[in-house]
Amino acid sequence: MTFDQIRNRQEKPSWKGVLPGRPVPFFLDDGDGERSAVFDSLVTVLLSKDETDGQFGVFTMRQPKGDLIVPHSHVDVHEIFYVVEGAARVFVEHADGRQESKLLGPGDFGYVPAGIVHSYRGEAEYTKILGVCTGGFERFFQALGELTDERDVPLTEPFTPSPEQMQEAFSRYRNIPLPDYRWEEA
User: Fold this and answer.
1) Partner of 123 for a Cys bridge, out of 12, 67, 87, 140, CB 3.0 to 4.6 A?
2) Pfam families annotated for this entry (predicted)?
3) How far apart are CA 56 and CA 131, in angstroms?
């Protein structure tokens, strides 16, 4: 199922239209934004490429402590991790092949340039990460997940995408999953 198919379903989430869709000033209250359930995580888009003339997107990810996100790289997407609450371990492979991981706590920041293999996992009971990415990639989470009205974790109903939905999302957003990749410290 593509994001357009999800977006055009009969039952629209109550937040539909909360983002202006063009570059104008606006404000959101805590928990507001375009929300999607992705496995056991809640991803909320706060700012999309539509509001920044394609320059960048901003989202939050709330997740429980859990498994490592599948190692992956993005062809042309830069991504930051800023931990708002909880803790997350971010794994990266440098251009020279050296692996590194860093435990990030509240206020800590990490940057992953395009083309770098990386992954992360929540290390606290609940973690909230503020992410900023190259414009357009913020919609990956909506394509991979299911639009929801839920505002916090744990989610009432976690969402597991079908293999077809996963393939469509990874392909559309040029996200290269590396499920057989192993981290030395994981």
Assistant:
1) 87
2) Cupin_1 (PF00190)
3) 10
Q: How many Å apart are CA 30 and CA 59, to the nearest integer? A: 12
Task: Report which of 112, 89, 93 is spatially closest to residue 102, judged by C-alpha positions.
Answer: 89
Identify the bridge partners of residue 160 per DSSP, sorted by sequence position.
none
Q: What is the separation of C-alpha 104 from the centre of its chain, rounded to a whole number of angstroms?
A: 17
Fold of 40-177: Jelly Rolls (2.60.120)
CB contact set of 27 (below 8 Å; sequence gap of 6+): none
Domain ranges for the chain, please list them. Answer: 40-177
Q: What is the mean pLDDT of each run of 10 residues along the chain (186 residues)?
A: 46 83 96 95 97 97 94 96 98 96 98 97 97 97 94 92 95 95 88
Of 62, 43, 59, the closest CA to residue 147 belongs to 43
The pTM (predicted TM-score) of the whole model is 0.90
CA distances for 121 relative to 2, 80, 155, angstroms: 26, 14, 17
Question: C-alpha dihedral over 135, 67, 126, 46, to 10 degrees?
Answer: 10
